[in-house]
Amino acid sequence: MARKISVGINWQGPLDYKALLEKVQIADAAGVHSAWVPEAWGRDAFTTLAVLADHTQNIQLGTAIVNTYSRTPAALAQHFATLDELSGGRMIIGLGTSGPQVIEHFHGVKFNPPLTRMKECIEIINTLMRNEPLKYSGKLFNLQRGFTLRFTPVRNHIPIYLATLNAKSVKLTAELADGWLPIMIPLPKLQSEINAVRQMSVAAGRPANALSVRAPGAVVVTTNVDKARAESAGTLAFYIGRMGTFYAEQLTRHGYGEAAQAVKKAWEGGSRAAAEAVPADLINAISCAGSVEACIDRLQAQEEGGVDIHSVQVDAKDNREYEQTLVKLVG
């Protein structure tokens, strides 16, 4: 059976839009399940998704992620309903709360309470997708005029995936979402974490397989393993040292507390020092880089842990090699 492979899009730095579109079209033809466009404080996600929706046929398109603060729930519903129409029903809604540094110091919006914001956002989006009058009484949103979208959405429900970390937000994911976008779960802990979420789904009266899970780490097919590992270390260092406390707490919970504290301390000397402080065993647990065969082994281990959708990167010399590699990964 074919694997559900997903690819990501760069959100910062220089970007060749023509090359990006070609890569996603190749992925579409190769049977890749989905392409995910992030949004942080670089490019917005929806402009790129509109281009991809108009120039692809089968590949599903998601946000990984957009936050629930910088746009109202109704604005998010408008975006996704429009893109779902443009793509012929291929959108995936990927949501997260981000963190107070980004929300308060980039967007200028008060961060708290994140869980309430997420819950109400999901409920409002779902109401609008069902084309029901929007009459909503929540703790944050009080919407009583009964607005509906002035067009009929292609689907009455677009799958919603949540990027969540702590116990309460993961529980909300299990209760309300269609998918989970976890992050920084070491491979040895993957099965127990996914099993716990599935048990929460059952406790909420849902099937155990109500949630689809996208892998928390990337698998990189490359001949330059050192470069890929250095990039992984740099990403880990940035999230641990710069992006608040959430990610260090996550790794601490999974047994990497000493490593997280060492990286945070090293960050005081700069990003390079912090990346050098990331231990090799943490890089190995979070990510994989190597040959196609080595990466397929990692995908199989992730599947055994309960992963449904894999995140891959392919460092290819040309588009032909890129396509051939994707085909092998899809299987």
How would you describe what is shown here?
This protein is of the alpha/beta class and 331 residues long. The protein has 2 domains: 4-216 and 306-330, Alpha-Beta Barrel (TIM Barrel), CATH 3.20.20.30; 224-290. It is built from 14 helices and 12 strands. Strands 1-2-3-5-8-9-10-12 form an 8-stranded parallel beta barrel, surrounded by 6 helices. Strands 6-7 form a two-stranded antiparallel sheet. β8 (160-162), α6 (167-176) and β9 form a beta-alpha-beta unit. α2 (45-54) runs parallel beside α3 and α6 crosses α7 (187-203). The longest helix is centred in the C-terminal third of the chain and has 18 residues, at 225-242.
Number of domains: 2
Distance between the termini: 7 Å
SS summary, helix count: 14
Secondary structure: number of strands: 12
CATH domain class of the largest domain: Alpha Beta
Query: Over all CA atoms, what is the radius of gyration?
Result: 20 Å
So, CATH architecture of the largest domain?
Alpha-Beta Barrel
